[in-house]
Design a protein that fits this description.
The strands form two sheets. The protein has a five-stranded antiparallel β-sheet with strand order 6-5-4-3-7. By secondary structure, the protein is mostly beta strands. The protein has a domain at about 20-85: SH3 type barrels, CATH 2.30.30. It has one helix spanning about 45-50, and strands at about 5, 10, 15-25, 30-40, 55-60, 70-80, 80-85.
């Protein structure tokens, strides 16, 4: 359903999010996948939300030896299990030497 205010601005129930390639380290596993962040919002804002879980799509879960132990289209990760998290760019594997 779309609602309009007196200025013509419209409101919908649809929330637009942008997928951000990310790496998460939990207490036991490394996870690579996409974290979906509100369009125009900061990555940190998604982590500070009141939800107990963060959604990761196109998830790959690695063991301590770097082997993939799970691949799936969706994974819900409990936020309190996250040790660190960071967005990664397309050139994350590049090493620059100065």
């Amino acid at each position: 359903m779309i609602e309009y205010d007196e200025k013509g601005k419209y409101y919908t129930d649809v929330v637009t999010k942008v997928p951000v390639p990310s790496i998460l380290q939990t207490t036991t596993h490394l996870i690579r996948g996409l974290i979906h962040v509100l369009k125009g919002a900061r990555f940190k804002t998604e982590l500070e939300g009141s939800e107990q879980y963060i959604a990761v799509t196109e998830a790959n879960v690695y063991d301590t030896e770097g082997k993939i132990i799970y691949q799936g289209p969706f994974l819900a990760v409990q936020k309190k299990q996250i040790v660190w998290i960071m967005p990664v760019g397309e050139d994350e594997n590049k090493v620059t030497k100065e």
